[in-house]
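*** Query protein ***
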Amino acid sequence: MNNLKRALAITLGIAALIGFQSCSKSGRKTENPNIIYILADDLGYGDISAINDSSKIITPALDKLASNSMVFTDAHTSSSVCTPTRYGILTGRYSWRTSLKDWVVTGYGKPLIPAGRSTLANLLKQKNYTTACIGKWHLGWTWPGIEGGEKNVDFTGSIVDGPLNNGFDHFFGFSGSLDMPPYVWVENNMPTMEPNKFVDCIEPKYGWFREGVCAADFEHDEALPLITQKAVEYIDLKAKSDSAFFLYLPLPAPHLPILPTKEFKG
């Protein structure tokens, strides 16, 4: 629990100034701040121009946020890849205390967070927060039928041991990374559509993803805009509520595949 409280303190450090300001403007009865935890995937320390004057990428929105916020510049990690990072953020524990000693789980991978393990979302629910995860889960869950192998997964059934079993009231996202099948959106515990096609391995240097089954409503190059849209809709909805909310927003970018939409190309 102490580890979780430390993780909560870090999260509050990121969001508290914005959160308390939004509370006072909305007139909500609670004094708890809304918390939005945005996790960028494979974003380098020097990629943000507010931190690195020599960055080749200009990030005006993040720079504006940084200029009005607290910025931490001394950071350490026990692992630099996807799954263990998420495990540490949500549980406050070292990732190597799990069965996964290196690398990551796949899109069909077993749940890494064991039943009964408290998470940041569980802790905040004790403080009367509503909680949501929108984006890339990549901590494993149990697909129905997976015990018979990947080809036997029943995409009409309900997943188990996912975000809703780990303290979140709402989830919209996908199981692994954007370069890992199955390419299926899941809302709460149910896939939004069965896979109806097989996509081949895409080979562009920065747009690469693995072959596998894919649903008709899953378009790789529209994944980031859709996640953003869902997050904004959630924030707009919960901003009208008397209770505070926690939104965990793990983005699939800028990790591969890099697939900018038309307005961002070039």
Residues 86 and 139 are 7 Å apart (CA to CA). The chain has five helices and eight strands. Confidence is low (pLDDT under 50) at residues 4-25.
